[in-house]
Amino acid sequence: MDTWKFYDITHREHVVCNPTSEDKLARLVGLLRLRAKAHVVDIACGKGEFLIRMAEAYGIRGIGIDISPFCIADAQRQLRVRASGAEVVYSHINGSDFRPEKPHSFALASCIGASWVFGGHAETLDALSGMAAPGGWVIVGEPYWLQKPSEEYLEASGQTRDLFGTHPGNVEAGELRGLELVHTFVSSKDDWDKYEGLQWYATAEYARCHPDDPDLPELLERVAKAKVVYLRWGRDTLGWAMYVFRTPSVAERHFERSK
Hints:
Largest sheet: 7 strands, mixed
Number of helices: 10
CATH topology of the domain at 18-188 and 241-249: Rossmann fold
Radius of gyration: 19 Å
């Protein structure tokens, strides 16, 4: 089954394709206080909700990058309906292939919930830091272990223990790169339950409406397995948060060099 078809079906009911809430996303947007026409980039933008909200709130100029053709189509539809005059462009490419015209040129660079694009959390921070201007925002969403994962969970989920770190470790990775943490938005169990539950619901609805889809057996098997893994182990083992960092200002960088 095509990977992006699978995620399109399982995430059809989602506004935000991560285990966070629309309220937390709204609070994040409210913190940013971006200038009009601020230039921002969102890597693995999903359905484009973050960029659209920033366009609605601040009139930013934005670039959204995603490898899923379904997500890009959804994002473009939402943009036409909600912010048709916004200077936002969505591009269907792999985020790791994106190259800004100039380094350190964006007021905000984000990759929320897709650090696999760059090969991990630390690598994502490196990539975004190279895009963000002095005093700009670097925003990532990343899982972390709530507790030591059991061998049964790792085997059932196909994950490895070193795939994720801890919540403090995610913060320290940014600080080691000279970034200042100014806020975190930590997902609750309710956020996780909604994220997972909407996938079960969307899959059931799709199966009811598309009983002849040849991909249906695989879709149902994968979602049923993921449901068991989440309920038996994942709900108490895996956390998730959005980490809001700022890069040093020009003055701060000059001060550090002069010490």
